[in-house]
Automatic annotation (TrEMBL):
Organism: Longivirga aurantiaca
Alphabetical list of Pfam families matching this protein: Lactamase_B
Top-rank lineage group of the source organism: Bacteria
Family from the record: Belongs to the metallo-beta-lactamase superfamily.
Domain Metallo-beta-lactamase: 48-259
Listed name of the protein: MBL fold metallo-hydrolase
UniProt keyword list: Hydrolase, Metal-binding, Zinc
Keyword Metal-binding: yes
Chain segments annotated as transmembrane: none
């Protein structure tokens, strides 16, 4: 995706897939009509794992760091650095890392074996997420991998506290909404986690939005009552989504989620009495 003279490329790490009824319980199957092309075999939600590479005149930035090299049943991962290399970027080239939130599948390549993977990059996250995920009451929960993974213990090499501790000396925290680097702004949309944030990229008068886990699937983005099961504060998440929807429809800016299948880009448009998803061919955009 080209935004003015900036580029945004997906960095694939892996994927996991699950029946739509698991992350979106209680939704009538008929409500998925119209979204079947965005499901595997018409029923499975495919969640890509990885992040986005944002290149501007001033920065080589990553937005989110995927799942990491750990192998977990029903999840595939480990491709992030190879995907980055295919884009012509080495870990030491990266100048900025923006973390939309601090769930395990967004910080997986923050550190490996206790060492930061991107040692020259300033790492940035929301202060409220840092406080929560490094706080004394936080514990990694193996059920976050889903019942089909069959895990009753969290993998030791994926401990959130260790991943974040390894990059603390590289980290800066934000609070609120601000431009943190030239052309790269953060806009808080709490609910999925306390500090869930969207990243807005602007160059030469054009903008695009990377929304992390504000919505995990396009249907969730445009259907306000499609609530994702692990949102920490469902009511706050719904309010954030509603606010985001208005902005996306009014501005017409391209948008991509952290987990949309094939990292698909699109726009939010008016559809009937509500909103609809309009895909974009990012390769030609």
């Amino acid at each position: 995706m080209k935004i003015g003279n900036a580029s945004i490329d997906a960095v694939l790490d892996g994927e996991f897939a699950l029946d739509r009824s698991i992350p979106y319980p209680g939704i009538d199957p008929d409500r998925w009509t119209g979204y079947e092309s965005l499901l595997r075999d018409g029923t499975q939600v495919v969640n890509q794992l990885g992040g986005y590479l944002v290149r501007t005149d001033d920065h080589i930035a990553l937005v989110d760091l995927g799942f990491g090299p750990t192998q977990v049943p029903t999840w595939t991962s480990g491709k992030f650095l190879d995907s980055l290399a295919a884009l012509g970027v080495k870990p030491e080239d990266v100048t900025e890392v923006f973390l939309t939130h601090l769930h395990f599948d967004h910080i997986g390549w923050a550190a490996v074996n206790g060492d930061p993977v991107f040692p020259n990059a300033t790492h940035r996250c929301h202060a409220r997420d840092w406080e929560y995920f490094t706080g004394p009451d936080f514990e990694d929960n193996p059920m976050m991998f889903g019942p089909e993974a069959g895990l009753d213990q969290w993998p030791q090499d994926m401990l959130t506290r260790d991943k974040l501790g390894a990059i603390e000396h590289l980290l800066e925290r934000w609070d609120g909404t601000a431009e943190l680097a030239h052309g790269i702004s953060v806009i808080e949309y709490p609910g999925h986690t306390p500090g869930t944030t969207a990243i807005k990229v602007t160059a030469q008068g054009e903008s695009a939005m990377l929304i992390g886990d504000i919505a995990h699937h396009q249907a969730e983005l445009v259907e306000p009552d499609f609530h994702f099961i692990v949102d920490m504060s469902p009511e706050e998440s719904a309010a954030s989504q509603s606010s985001l929807l208005v902005q996306l429809e009014q501005t017409g800016m391209p948008v991509a989620g952290a987990h949309f299948q094939d990292f698909q880009w699109g726009r939010v448009v008016r559809g009937g009495t509500g909103y609809a998803w309009a895909p974009i061919d990012a390769a030609s955009a």
